[in-house]
Specification:
- The chain is of the alpha+beta class.
- It has a single domain, classed as Aminopeptidase.
- 29% of the residues lie in helices and 35% in strands.
- Strand 2 and strand 3 form a beta hairpin.
- The relative contact order is 0.17.
- Bound molecules: coenzyme A (COA).
- Coenzyme A (COA) binds next to helix 2, strand 4, helix 5 and helix 6.
- The site of coenzyme A (COA) has 21 residues, from helix 2, strand 4, helix 5 and helix 6.
Amino acid sequence: MRTSFIELTEPTQEHADAFNRWENDRTLIPLTRPNQSQSEVEEPVTMTLDHLIERLNNHRIYLIYLDDQLIGEMNFMVDPGHLYKKVPGTAWVGITIGEPEGRGKGIGFKAIQFLEEQVRKQGLRRIELGVFEFNQNAHHLYQKLGYKEIGRIADFTFWQNKMWADIRMEKYV
Ligand SMILES: CC(C)(COP(=O)(O)OP(=O)(O)OC[C@H]1O[C@@H](n2cnc3c(N)ncnc32)[C@H](O)[C@@H]1OP(=O)(O)O)[C@@H](O)C(=O)NCCC(=O)NCCS
């Protein structure tokens, strides 16, 4: 098993199709984006090539490969408005291993460490992230990597008939 992480600099239609598939995956939607209701959970989104190119204006995106297969992506933004602690020079990170066969094999663990290195290379020293409280796999991974809880935003997202909190975590890198 060989994993590689490659910065996305020239998005293609193939990349946009993969993002579009992951962003509309019923099992991933509740884990990766906040929703206010069940109908929002079910709402389709369209990720076109133009949208992906636009996303590069304020995100650095890294593609995750398992052997030659594109299985996911991770990204960071600098100092977005929604930070829980507004410390200048903070990277807000996100990760999605979109293909199910890529999960639970230690790839997320390696991928986040790679992302931390890229954040450091940008001269940034703080990372903040959000994880929905029912997403135990992701929460466990972040704890294992040394992320510490700094707060919870109650009633943040809808899943299985109720609202759940967003757990905010930080790490100095
Ligand atoms: C969350 C995610 C990034 C974790 O990456 P991963 O490659 O699956 O996780 P790893 O294999 O590196 O596992 C790291 C730790 O988390 C646990 N874990 C992760 N996924 C798990 C799973 N599906 N089942 C059980 N444990 C899991 C592992 O047990 C491991 O801890 P351990 O070594 O103490 O057992 C990935 O599963 C994913 O993209 N999931 C869907 C989208 C998502 O939840 N994104 C994060 C939003 S905050």
